[in-house]
Give the backbone structure.
Amino acid sequence: MTAQLIDGNALSRQLRDNVRERVLTLRARGVVPGLAVVLVGDNPASQVYVRNKVKACEDTGMHSVLEQYPADMTEADLLARVTALNNDPSIHGILVQLPLPAHINAQRVIETISPAKDVDGFHVGSAGALMVGQPGFWPCTPYGCMKMLESIGYNLRGKHAVVIGRSNIVGKPMALMLLQQNATVTICHSATPDLKAMTLQADVIVAAVGKRNVLTADMVKPGAVVLDVGMNRTEEGKLCGDVDFADVKEVAGYITPVPGGVGPMTITMLMVNTLASAEHMLAA
Ligand code: NAP
């Protein structure tokens, strides 16, 4: 059996077309959705990520502001910038690119972002809203995974989903979103003694670890849906996920590739969240 591919690039294009149309509607009413991206320091990967986010704003007709600061910026100065952006009516979403330099308390910075503009969904208020099923911003990567499941018409009710990884930005919110859709959810992590015993029971597997080949074909039930969040490099420097794609695609029912899977969905969901924020503020 060869799995069907869930194409994150194609789905992103569809979703961005919808965002672009809704941006035009807002613009006609005098509102241009705006995203502020704040980068502290010169981490090369972060520079690529923020550039892609700014490009996605341009692509969808949104306004973006990229604020770049030196690595020795003080925490107090960063908090002051975030507060200024909270009070700026042209900004509907604020994203502080992580990781931050070690002398800055990242959690304090995230908690300073207004929950109304927390389009990354990392604020404790957003996390709490997801936990209790209240409206709020969902973290973009697991939100993108949910959109991928929706795109194949997958009904999670009564299904067993296994999430590998329990980070605050991917694994935990992923598990809560799956639970909200009535899946039975198992969360695995580095202290899970027999990962294979868990994944073999799964109808849906989300791999969010950051290690190559964490999920191999012998760990997958035939026909399962496999979503690969991981971003790793091969010895040759090529981007790859956590899943042994070549072999797992022969067992799974659906699978996301890396690159071209969850990655493009993450930035697209950031656009969706920023747009939703602008729409919400206009309606308020
Ligand atoms: P993270 O904070 O490092 O979390 C990794 C999780 O994997 C931890 O919960 C860890 O368990 C668990 N883990 C480690 N080794 C394991 C093993 N052998 N078996 C089972 N679980 C294991 O990473 P993250 O931020 O969630 O990101 C995960 C991956 O997704 C990374 O490759 C990252 O680059 C990628 N990512 C991609 C996107 C995208 O847009 N595609 C977005 C975000 C992240 P413990 O908690 O016990 O340590």
Q: What stands out?
A: The chain has ten helices and eleven strands.
